Amino acid sequence: MLLAWSNLNEAEALLKDQVTKDAELLVARTNQYIDATLDNVENILLLLSTRQDLLEEDGNDPEAVRTLQSFADYNSSVVRTLYFVRSDGKVFSNTQVNYDIIGNPHLEELYAQALGNYGSIQVSEPYVSPLSGRTLAYMMPVKDRNNEVRGVIVAELGLDLLVSRISPPLIYQSFTLVTASGNVINRMEAGERLLPVMPGTYPPELLPDFTAKLPGLKTGADSMNVNGERLIAVKSAKNRLGWSLIAFIPEDSFYKDLQPLYGNYRNATVLWVVILLFSALMLSRTLTRPIRGLVNKMDRLHDFQVVSKLPEDRRDEIGKLASSFNAMLARIQHLLHETKRAEEKKKEYELKMLRSQIAPHFLYNTLACISSLAKQRRIDDVRQTIRSLVGLLTFSFDRQGEFVALEEELEGLGMYMHIQQVRYGAKYGCRIEIEPQLLELRLLKLTLQPLVENALFHGLAPKGGGTVVVTGGVRDGRLRLYVRDDGVGMSRDDIRDVYRKQAAEPSRHAFTGIGLANVHERIRIHFGEPYGLRIGGRKGVGTVVRVELPLSQPM
């Protein structure tokens, strides 16, 4: 298919190049035909210049008119009107009667132009003559032996005749002649809409915006967009007058010979696709027959616990599939066992959490503190401490399920810190810096409280006081919470042994029996191994615990 597509592109490029060269050659030859026609006009002027006797003031005026008529009749295919303009202002024409009645106001200007260039043949720009219509003039001064000007010969060409004679060899609908000064002579068929014309003009005149673009076209084939249609403009090189011929052809017509080429390649492509599909069908039936047998055996498997392995007696690809299938079954059985064990471990931790919700020492110490406050008659502190204790107990006992909103977890943490500050004074501080949009996200109940409790009694207490800061944010699609303290800090060995030590030696100051190891395992059981706790710290600087959780839906 790639080879065929490449060949099509190359054939298309070659054909377009050939068509373009043929069009350029045809336009160039037409331009040469124009040169030959204009050479004929120059020959007429040269022949007439030999008849200086016709310009004598006492000459034969009827003979001058007959001579001009003879030359005009013989060259009527191009020349419309011939003039002898004598130096005294007398004018003879091959249509003397018409000239005497209508006149020609351009002759005076043409006479002056002819004398302005040392006696050589001059060519005017196109204009409209009363006798010749749309025309341009060839002018040649006639001098005697003493190099004195006797008069000027003027030949007015019929541009409509010239354009009509160009049309048969060009065979294109529309073309224009662009003079050296940028004037445009156009030819269009009646009713043609290929080029933009000014409304209400006859003969049709091109729009000025369009004619302004024509001198800028490159020599050869060029494309342009006219009236929403793509045209190919074939421009010739300039002839001796500095004129250029531009032919306009619709792109579809210009490249019409490409359609059979497209048809041949389309038919060949369809045939090859049919052959390839049939070959693929036969090849697939040959290769998939043993695979279908393997699939039928696999479909009979329902209970992975009692499944039997497939025989591995083949050494081809089917045997490799059977071996891979057996390895997959073993992996599935292992995963089922791991899942079952994880479920049992999850239930074990849930039961452990329920059994050790409230540590007796914490409750005893808190009640003793309330009793001491009552003896001191600090009624407001008693009321507030009881309210915090009741709220903390309610948060621990009455909530249904393991998940709570982050906002509720922080409320419980606030009540816990209030109790600790009443017991130990203002030497312990806790600051919460959580973005408001995170407060509705879910997390496991009693996730942050054990971490703050660990920071108080293992980080700040040995130092004699300090502050715990709880922050949080979202990164990489995960919720990350941080518990930092400025306590005594931890070494790498302390961090490595923190889970084992907490599990073996629970603190008597703890609110619950849930330690760091418990929190870490609960998170991993619920959300997987990528989540859980990460601990970092430096001796004498402090400790930070990062809690990484999936970004769950709000409560």
From TrEMBL:
EC number: 2.7.13.3
Keyword annotations: ATP-binding, Cell membrane, Kinase, Membrane, Nucleotide-binding, Phosphoprotein, Transferase, Transmembrane, Transmembrane helix, Two-component regulatory system
Entry keyword Cell membrane: yes
Compartments where found: Cell membrane
InterPro entries reported for this sequence: Bact_2-comp_sensor_kinase, dCache_1, HAMP_dom, HATPase_C_sf, HATPase_dom, His_kinase_dom, Sensor-like_sf, Sig_transdc_His_kin-like_C
GO MF assignments: ATP binding; phosphorelay sensor kinase activity
Chief location of this protein within or outside the cell: membrane
HAMP domain: residues covered: 285-337
GO cellular component: plasma membrane
Catalytic activity: ATP + protein L-histidine = ADP + protein N-phospho-L-histidine
Protein's membrane topology: Multi-pass membrane protein
Top-level division of the source organism's lineage: Bacteria
Name the record gives this protein: histidine kinase
Organism: Cohnella rhizosphaerae
The organism's taxonomic lineage, starting at the top: Bacteria, Bacillati, Bacillota, Bacilli, Bacillales
